[in-house]
Each structure stands twice: as C-alpha cells, then as structure tokens.
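Consider the subject:
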Amino acid sequence: MKIFENIVNHKINNITGDELLKYAEPFKLDINKKQADKIAQYLRSKKVNIFNDKERVNLIKEIAKVTGPETAKEVNKLFVLFIKDK
C-alpha cells in the first residue's frame, strides 16, 4: 500500500485551489475559492504525509490558522476520506 500512499501524498502536496474545490464538492465540504487557494498554497509549501496522524494533525492546525477552524475541520474530513479508502 506504500505506492498508494505515495500517490495520494504527491497529489496533496501538489494540489491547486481549483482541484481542491473539485474534490470538496462531491463531499459537500464547505470551502470557498479563496480558502481553497490558501490551503493549496500552504500544502504545496509543506510536504506532508497525510497518512501520518501527527503530521496530519499539525497540518490541520496550520490550515486552521490560515482559514479558520471550521474550514480546517472540513479539509480534515476530506483527508480522512482519502486515508480510509487505502
């Protein structure tokens, strides 16, 4: 499963705001374009393994600083969906 994790992490670490919005829409995650762009910019600046609980928690805390706690919660929901499908 390591290859699956690498693929997902690569996508997360190279995502654009538009792509993040595209992934959020089917899951009814409440983020707007400005928030998606900020989150994507942050994700591209920090290489994170979302399968590592500690790294993901720290990432969500940093996203909360940028976009607010409710948006960070929504992004975490999306990450958890990626993780549990592995």
Q: What stands out?
A: The mean pLDDT is 88. The CA atoms of residues 15 and 40 lie 6 Å apart. Residues 2-84 form one domain. Residues 69-84 form the longest helix (16 residues).
